[in-house]
Amino acid sequence: MSVGRPEKPLAPDAGPATAFALELRRLRAAAGSPSYRELARRALFSASVLSDAAAGHRLPTLQVALAFAEACGGDRAVWERRWRAAAGRAGDGPGPAVKPAQQAPEPRLRAAAVRAVLPVPAQLPMEPRPLAGRARELGEARALTAAGAGPVPPLVIHGPTGVGKSALALRLAHELAADLPDGQLYVSLGAAADGRKDAPGIAGGMLRSLGIAPELIPDDPAQRIGLYRSVLYERRLLVVFDGTLQERQVRDLLVAAPHSRIVVTARSRLLGLDGVRRLALPVLGRDGSMDLLAGIVGTERLAAAPRAGLLLAEACGDLPLALTLAGRRLAARPEVFLSEAVAELLAADGLSGRLRVGDESLTERYEDAYRRLTPPARLLLHRFAATGAAPCVDGVIRTPATALAHAPEPPREPVEPVEDVLETVVDSGLLERTDVPGQYGLPPLVRQFALARAAATADGPEPAWHRPHGDRPAPGAARPFPAMTQETPA
């Protein structure tokens, strides 16, 4: 046992903060009076932070108090109740009767103590738009993240570009946050990050956000990730990874923890991840689309021209992002009859290109997904969109075999199975599965984008498609063309 230097005596009647500090000291004594340096290794806060918590000058943060108590073998729930009683805010009661450490004047604190008064991280962004028509999906997400008999696996919410994955994840996260008092961490991994954030760097940033002293964060990447996992296992945290592009960005950061929750959003299903739960997010139903529009342009204005709203929802393919951008354009012209404004919006060719408001653009979302496609996947997308030359009827792609039938000539050598190419386009968020196995849907706005892209892009010679099973190459035929690798943006 390592005993620290004697602490300054505390008066038992000096106030709630001092009384709470006395309780912490008694707990430490009952645990064998370990040194604060030893406690720091268990609690993941610096020794000076823990010493300050028991000094009685101010009430420590809940985060520090619980870490101190658990490092001494205390029960987390019991000590949370004691802290809230000392702070004068048990349950839904009035505001704190004493000022916790995060409200103490910063100039009086040492550098280590400043880290202790960092607020509990609450990094969730505000919800980007009203969540309409998602009652069923939100209920499924709640069920998939509900506490059970054991650890709760991470939840992956996936779906087409612009379908509202982030909006659903944020609504769910704000609900979960009420039962996760140790903080909410948010990491954006989408097009802006472009995959450059690595797991050890993300883990280090989250550990610092949680108030863990820099000297306690390992330099070794594997140990740093291990510390991050340990923190998630011990504390009650919420972590959201938004816009994940590839499995490797988050694989090492996923934990099935008994108290913490992890939510991941991605266009792809991220099939390379094991031990996760998945929730597929489709486009809205027509009623949900009308509810979303009503929340943007106004209920009375939409009620005066319901047919215009229905026409717009159909043109947008019931895609939440498209409806939101179109709705904002309409809302910016309140002096114009809704039917006239919608007619003007739909009259011009290329609605997808007009769905831009400020720095939000549907075309840019599609462009980001398109850049990540392989050349065969781009070609297949162009064929689906091309009039009279696509394996597509009324926006529905019948079967992979149909794609072969529309090839310009019988393929001589395999490049990549057409089924795999289809799955690549689906995981890009530009193609949808239908309820019928083997059939795929091409959203109307994606078709507009693909037609424009095909006209503006020279893809070179078309690659041969996968040869039907049983068709063997003739003796002396050329060697098979290798499958083309994933293309990344410059």
What does this 3D model show about the protein?
The protein is of the alpha/beta class. The chain is 43% helix and 8% strand. It is built from 21 helices and 11 strands. Strands 2-3-4-1-5 form a 5-stranded parallel beta sheet, with helices on both faces. α2 (36-43) packs across α3 (47-53) and α13 packs parallel to α15 (338-347). The longest helix has 15 residues, at 16-30. The radius of gyration is 28 Å and the shape is elongated. Mean pLDDT is 78; it is low at 89-116, 388-395, 403-414 and 459-490.
Write the topology of this structure.
Blueprint: H1 16-30, H2 36-43, H3 47-53, H4 62-71, H5 76-87, H6 111-116, H7 135-144, E1 155-158, H8 165-176, E2 184-188, H9 199-209, H10 221-234, E3 238-244, E4 261-266, E5 277-280, H11 286-297, H12 299-304, H13 306-315, H14 320-331, H15 338-347, H16 351-354, E6 356-357, E7 360-361, H17 362-371, H18 375-385, E8 392-393, E9 396-397, H19 400-405, H20 418-427, E10 432-433, E11 440-441, H21 444-456
Helix pairs in contact: 1-5, 2-3, 2-4, 4-5, 9-10, 11-13, 11-14, 13-15, 18-20, 18-21
Short description:
The protein is of the alpha/beta class and 490 residues long. It contains 21 helices and eleven strands. It starts with 15 loop residues before the first helix and ends in a 34-residue tail after the last helix.
